[in-house]
Amino acid sequence: MSGLAILIPIALGMGVFGLAMFFWAMRDGQFEDLDGAAHRILIDDEDDSERSAK
Amino acid sequence: MNALATPLPDEAPALVDSRFTVPGMRCAGCIAKIERGLGEIDGVDAARVNFSAKRVAVRHDARVDDEALISALEHLGFEAQPVAANPLAEDDREAKRLFRALAVAGFGMMNIMLLSVSVWSGAGGVTRELFHLLSALIALPVVAYSGRPFFASAAMALRYRRTNMDVPISIGVLLATGMSFYEVLTGGEHAYFDGAVMLLFFLLAGRSLDAMMRNRTRAGIGALLSRMGKSAAIVQEDGSTQRIAAENLFPGMTMIVAAGEALAADGTVVSGKGALDNAMLTGESTPEAVAPGDTVHAGAIALEGPLTVEITATQGDTALAEIARLMDEAGQSRSRYVRIADRASRLYAPAVHTLAVLAFIGWMIAGAGWHQSLVIAIAVLIITCPCAMGLAVPAAQVVASGALIKKGLLVKDGTALERLAEVDIALFDKTGTLTLGEPRPDTSHLDGRAKSVALALAQSSSHPLSRGLSASLRTEGVKPAAISDISEIKGEGIVATWDNSSVALRRNEIGGPGMSTTLHVGGLAYPILFSDGLRPDAKEAIDTLARMGVCSQVISGDRPGAVAKVVEELDLEGFAGVGPEEKLERLETLRSEGHFPLMVGDGLNDGPALAAAHASIAPGTASDISQQAADAVFIGERLAPVATAVSVARDTMRIVRQNFTFAIGYNVLAVPLALAGMVTPLIAAIAMSLSSLVVVANSLRLARSAK
Hints:
The complex is a heterodimer of chains A (54) and B (707). Chain A is mainly alpha-helical and 54 residues long. Helices cover 72% and strands 0% of the residues of chain A. Chain A has three helices and no strands. Chain A starts with a helix and ends with a helix. Residues 49-54 of chain A have low confidence and may be disordered. The relative contact order of chain B is 0.10. In chain B, helix 12 (370-383) runs antiparallel to helix 23 (640-675). Chain B has a seven-stranded mixed beta sheet, sandwiched between helices. Chain B is 50% helix and 18% strand. The longest helix of chain B is centred in the last third of the chain and has 36 residues, at 640-675. In chain B, a hairpin with a 5-residue loop joins strand 5 (231-235) and strand 6 (241-245). Chain B is an alpha+beta fold and 707 residues long. Chains A and B meet through helix 1 and helix 2 of A and helix 1, helix 3 and helix 4 of B.
């Protein structure tokens, strides 16, 4: 019984944390361009330093 | 879209956001090319591509205008059009609400399921009561939050004394939750929170898929009227001119139209000679020469000027406004189309209610207590839950539209696929639909040197012929020559210096079917002829349609001669010189004969017909309004997506029918068990999930259908 008292809140807490992360990711716009995200990984970003310097 | 690549520094000058659709992007290379290319322009702070929506959001200095950005994109090799701030914002919010509700339901479902499994596997006494209490604590807020979309819709339906699919769902969920809560408070043996929350989860999954589907391109008819000029320079009695807003114009006034200005009213040219870009109205991109006595329409853009025009119609009386009105009316006939899911639920919802009530009454008569009778009635409501039904249509449509996007066709809403599957006759507009709508040059007689000079000259001008020339040379892989001192002389052509000699692209004459220009390189003159050619696979696409039992006709506003050529080449029946109203009439006739016509067109004059046809498709180069009126938009030079759309739509409807058959079959098997009181919560949960999974798996087969 005492094990449950610790484990259940932990399980629920992890669930709530996951849910909060999802809400954050959605507000952040991470689900707006799923196809683009898949392609972006292929872009070389060598010249990124030069772009941010501009 | 709101997350831009680089944060903007505080001290930056006033920055504005512009958005463009760039239908041509296809790969990671395009994303990098656009983002970097635009980023290098002076005054552009950041550019961010949204690949799924084929859009690019540019944050830039107010000094850089849309035109400059579009031409920059063209230099990078992409066709672009500006779009309004964010026409999807409204729909987006709706979809986001559903996704949030889905996430919350998923969270609740997983946790309650864990607790329920422990109870089913034999937890008893205090532990069971504790678990039930915990389930209640999770379920109550989750049901309250995730159930809102259904409760709201059910309440709305009941207020108008109607019933829809959401009514049995809401009753089932609320009754199950209420009953379970009562059980928890009285220390009872069973709680059905798991069933209630799981039901919500699967239904929300269906709704979210549906919302994703609807989230495709949408704007407003208002966009049409915004294309009209906002004001006009009116000649006063004393001879001076004064700018007057469009709403204060009256027939009889005389306006002076400068080059580059959009006309604010319809009128007759009094004096001056020039050319108008009527692309918005007719889809024909070749400039139309006008002389005194000619009629001009609001929305056209003067390419050369000035023109003196006597106003004959303003505001709501213009040809443009008339087309908007026709489109609005025509669109209404289509909005009466009843979605297949709604048709099913119309029969389904009352049947389920009756069954649940009968179960309750039956068990009461049979002598079971009100408690057990109610539990069985709830079991009937839940097991007949239209989970599989709710997923049957959206799952199939989302998979199909995903497959079609890969083939270059964007389907705007779910009913479009249902309607496309039924078409049996196709009407094609000519210019811009069967043909490319863009003058393309014959460059076979040019040598490599001349080609590279021609490209360099053509790409520095925005004239339609230059654009056609540079597009065609670029696809050939020609590299532009390094020319300098470029100057464009209106009505003359482009002159520049290359390799210490003068080169030029001179205009011969505008108008007529034989458009041409002359390229001068080092004393040599190369005439270049342009023509508006058929799409490369037009014949093939029309044959494919014919094989599916869809016969095609050409219906065009163009001259009989031009239409006859195309009709002959494609071996079709054709009608020439057909205006917007006549196109509508023609569609009405076909409908009254029992046909389901498919309209394919691009010009604004096709707008009403696109809105009225049973289903309609517009090319990506069509005016915004036509794209808005059409059910689907295809991108690129090939016509094949039109045929693919019809065949995929038919496959989709086949899968949807299979899904419905399965969902009904499942209910026929499960309902008697529920009525007999033999369904335990565990079995109900497993059966429900399995039926939904089968429907989704069946729909996934569509991914291959657009091969």
